[in-house]
Fold this protein.
Amino acid sequence: MGTENKTITPKRESLFSKKNRKLLKDPLGDSNPITIQVLGICSALAITVQLQQAVIMSLSVLFVMIGGNVIVSLLRNLIPDRIRIIVQLVIIASLVIIVDEVLKAYQPDISEKLSVFVGLIITNCIIMGRLEAFALANKPGPSVFDAIGNGMGYAWVLLVVSIVREIFGSGAISLPGMGQVKFLPQDWFISSGGFYENNNLMILPPMALVVVGIIIWIQRSRNEALIED
Amino acid sequence: MAMNKNATGYTFLFSIVMVLLVGTALAFTSLSLKPLQKQNEADKKMVDILGAIGITTTRENAKNDFPTFVKERLSIDSEGNVLNITSGDVDSKDASDPFNLDVKKDYRSKKPASELSFPLYKCENEGESIYVIPVAGSGLWGPIWGFVALKSDMNTIYGAKFDHKTETPGLGAEIKDDFFSDKFQGKQLRDAAPYFTIEKGGRETDIHSVDGITGGTITSVGVGEMMNRTLSIYQLYFNSVINAQANNNGY
Amino acid sequence: MEYFNIFVKGIFVENMIFAYFLGMCSYLAVSKTVKTANGLGLAVIFVLGITVPINYLLENYVLKEGALTWLDPTFATVDLSFLSFIMFIAVIASMVQLVEMIVEKFAPALYGALGIFLPLIAVNCSILGGALFMQERQYPSIGEATTFGLGSGVGWWLAIVAIAAIREKIRYSNVPAPLQGLGITYIITGLMGIAFMSFMGIEI
């Protein structure tokens, strides 16, 4: 993962030697995990059809990232280099499985919503990427900040993509606990005899790529330094 | 540092300790939480069966509501013969109780139908007797399952309820939503296979079909597949019941 | 015929990138030139072809409920499937490391070509995805599982080589500056995904 990131963001090393505030702020903008570091794309595509799913996924990833970063950071002097990738994967996977098992026993309804994402969280390279790039070389304190920063940076892109896709794809917005709220009166939709037709293309996964592409476009037009040559 | 953390011996020691710790932690959580999870699953199954016949209930009340509406629990073999009839409260430890037959597991085991037995729930709601059939199959990512309720003519669909483990949220996952299962109400089965068809999302449908979920084609196809496969087995039982009724009326 | 069907399905109909969007991270990051893309793609074929059958054996002789009966008939009710995620990941990571060492020792030329990509593969979600699909689809024999692994690998290789070729050419096009590089790659992948959707549901 480390080498992979370096090819994309040669500046990252210097960025992460700065203070904690920067750790929190940078991933939201100039070193965003999805648009700049190219981490955690798979899940961004799979679950951004509805806002509700994006919210649940973001919270789970944030939680697992903080947990994983703290554990790996605490063990960083004990983990042998040669098997570090296995160790990190095992830590992430067991963390996710234990959380899921506990929820399944005590909060079956939440677990049902979450269990869809269990596999996606484990394979989410954003978690792995941050463990490898940050937690393995830093104290637990800064690692927590790094996790929160990157988790939030991941979350906002997910939320924006899912809001765009849900508005155009389903003509609605869904929030956890509130269900789907339609923007237009039900009669206006073509399915009930009206004139408004949802753009079904938006629901299909490829459109998530296009929406992320447009976010990158906007972000880089505002900050010329990020433009690749 | 006192020890060399890249030495082969240390690497082995570290992996062994890690495997032991992680294995114990996982096995411990899994085993100690199993009874609670089993109970939750049973409650959910009752909620879903009741959902298929249009009764909305909660996990907490499922245990009490279930015997009120579900009068008999049958198990039949692949020839349509009745093996077991149980009524009253569900006993999760009684292996002969048809409620404890796990169709999802049977489906995954890929055993031939002749080695399996199939559960059937005889329910009563508003004076009407309803047959609820559990179905199980695969969607795009993982298992899907559900319950199909038939009216006493064993041909008209009274209601349905589907669920899934890992279908794509917003696409295939919508099979569990009411708007999808409500489409099945009042539809009829054909006399021969395919008993029922799930069309592509948005297509025209007739009395023997519903349209699937746009963008969730593979999941929708899975719903159709599991319904037809399961119905073909229960059809043998239904035929024998209908024949028996006809004979009774004849005399 | 069944094998051929599984193989072709893995490449086109159920393409890891365009149908399931698995392994996106390395797909986007390592597709700047055809040469490196080709190297990573071959490594993915290789690793999928090895880990899927190993995980198949693990699933059917260790993890699945009743899988341990070959040890002792009394184990018929032992269900270790809660361990499957972690076992699959451990197998993948250790196989990647093992393959790396073997290739380095016995085929230095191949190592030169694949070497730097091998560690990246352990975290490529298409590999774990392959194992999970194998578990879900319950292939009847190890031959079919291996064919599926190889087919998915070839599909992934095809996708990354295709996008790398497009990216090499698009450098001469007049793409708006902020969209250059990553941005346009996302959008092209989206369009390719839509094109590949026309393979959906094809049976051979």
